[in-house]
Specification:
Blueprint (H helix, E strand, L loop, with lengths): L2 H5 L2 E4 L2 H8 L9 E7 L2 E6 L2 E8 L5 E8 L3 E7 L7 E8 L6 E6 L4 H15 L1
């Protein structure tokens, strides 16, 4: 991920093996990370069981908050693709009990359709 993309808040895909090593202690037995994305210092990980959000806080990033969102609690989601003059795509996720969606921005080099397919697959399987 480029420095400019990081400043603009764009996410980029990271290797699942790296995420598995770093966050394996948060996973239950038979859970695996399927897709991993980094947004500056924060991460969101799609596992075969849930969506796991990693929110690194403070200047040092040593304080970390982990959000676990079961796919069954996601009520719906939307993907907004990057246009000709638009440099990014957005993923919006509505979670049961929350009025506003969780919104993540992806740089244009990332295939937002891959993210859509992963999320759609897990949500449809959990219903």
């Amino acid at each position: 991920m480029g420095f400019f993309d990081g400043l603009m808040g764009n996410a980029s895909e990271i290797k699942n093996e790296d995420a598995q090593k770093e966050f394996g202690n948060l996973l239950i037995r038979e859970e695996r990370i399927e897709k991993s994305y980094k947004l500056i210092r924060d991460l969101f990980l799609f596992t075969n069981k849930r969506l796991l959000l990693v929110d690194k806080q403070g200047m040092s990033g040593k304080k970390v908050e982990y959000h676990s969102i079961p796919y069954s609690s996601i009520t719906h989601f939307a993907v907004e693709t990057a246009g000709t003059f638009d440099l990014d795509a957005e993923l919006k996720i509505w979670i049961s009990g929350m009025d506003l969606p969780l919104t993540k921005t992806f740089n244009k080099s990332l295939n937002i359709y891959d993210v859509h397919a992963v999320l759609a697959g897990y949500i449809l399987e959990s219903k």
